[in-house]
Amino acid sequence: MNTIATFCSNPNLVTAFQKLCGVKFLSNQSNNSTENSILTEKTSDKYPKKRHASNTKKLQDSQDSPKTDYKITNPFLHVLFHIGAFLCNEGFYVIVFPFLLYNVDQCAFRHGCYFWSLVMYIGQAAKDIIKQPRPPSPPVARLESRYDTEYGMPSTHAMMGTAMPFALFHSTYLRYEYPEWLGILIATCWMILVCLSRLYLGMHDLWQIIIGILMTLPIVVTGSLLINDVDVWILSSPYSPMVLITVSIILVLLYPAPKDRWTSTRGDTTMILSGSVGACIGIWLDCRTSGRLPEEGFNFPYPINLPTFDALGMAFLRWIFTISLIVPLRAIMKSIIFTVLPIILPKSDIEPSKRAVIELPYRYVNYSVIGFSVTYISPLLMRWIGIYGDGPYGQIQ
Asked: Which of the following is catalytic: 78, 82, 111, 204?
C-alpha cells in the first residue's frame, strides 16, 4: 500500500497528465530533468518524503514560492476541464439546485442537499485533520487559485463528483422512465470528468483523488439505503427544524479548523450546512402549511417528455426570479452582519472575514436565510404572481 501511495503521490504524474492535455511549461525548465524519470525510484522517493515532513510549513512555502509559467495549447480540453471543476463548485449548485427544485424534481433537490452537506463536511474536516498540501508548484502548473488556502487530502471535488451524480441517479431512476444504463453512464462520465479536471488544473495528485473516491463510496451506499426514511422524517416530524438547527450548529462548532492558520474550508462548510438546513426548513414549512408531503397522491414512475418552448420559458423565468431574489438578499445580509458585528465585538487586527466570530455567524445566518428563501419565500411569491406551475417534467408541488 505504501508503494502505491508513493507512486500515486508523485507530482510528476500530474505534470505528465498536464503536458498530455496541452499544457506547455514555459519556466522552471529544471523540471525537465525529472520528466524522463517520472516512474523511477529516485522521483518516487523524493517527493513523498518532503510531503510528510512538515505539512503546514510546506503549504505556506508552496503559496509563497514562484509559480510555474505555462501556455495552453489545447483550448478545448482547457475549457472542458474547467467545466468539470465547475460541476463541484458552489456556483454550480446555486445555479442547478433552484432549477431542480422548480422545474425538474423536488426529491432530487432534497437528496442532493443531504449528500452535499454530509460529503462536504466529512471531506473538508478530513482535509484540516490530515493537513496534506496540494501538489507543489513547481513542478506542477497550478491552473486554478481559488482553493489555494485549502489542504489537498482528500479531494472534495472527487468526493462530490462521485456522490452527487449517483445520488441524483438514485433519486430519479424509480421516479422517471429512462434506461438504467443511461443514468449510470452519465453519472460515471460526470465523475471521471471531475476527477481528471483536478489533475489537469494541478490541484490534486492522483492519490488524493483516489482516497476521495474511496471515502465517498461507503457514504453513497449507506446514504442510499437510509435517505428515503430520513427524508420522510425531515419533512413530517414537528421536531425536525429544531434538530437540524441544533445538529448543524454543533457540527460547525466542532469543526476541526487548523489553529495555526486560516483556511476557507470551515467557512465553506458552514455555508453548505446552513444553506441546506434553511432549504429543508423551508420545504418542511411548505409541507406543514399545505398539509401533505410533496409527492403524496402521485403514482411513479413518470415518463420524461420533451418540454415545450413555453414551458422552457417559464422554467427560465422561475430561475431568474429566484436568482434576482437571493443575490440582493445575500448582499444586504452581508452588509448588515459585517457592519454590526465588528462594532459590538472586541477590536482585532485580523481581517473581519477571517475572524471566526464574524465569519461563522455571517455564513450561517446568511445562507440559512437564502436556503429558506429559495424553498419557501420564492415559491410563495411565484404562486402569488402566477409563474410557479408544475414544471415541464411533471414536477410535483
From this structure: 204
Q: Which of 52, 78, 111, 157 is catalytic?
A: 157
Parallel/antiparallel/unpaired status of strands 70-72 and 176-177: unpaired
CA atoms within 13 A on the CB side of 33: 5
Is 52 known to be catalytic?
A: no
Q: How far is CA 267 from CA 106, 121, 125, 150, in A?
A: 27, 11, 11, 11
The contacts of residue 131 (CB under 8 Å, 6+ apart) are: 55, 56, 59, 151, 258
Look up 204 and say whether it is catalytic: yes
Give the pLDDT confidence of 31-63 residue by residue, as tens digits.
443 443 333 334 444 444 444 444 444 444 444
Place of cell 419533512: 235
Concatenating the DSSP letter of every residue in 216-239 gives HHHHHHHHHHHHHHHHHHHHH-TT
Residue, of 174 and 322, whose pLDDT is higher: 322
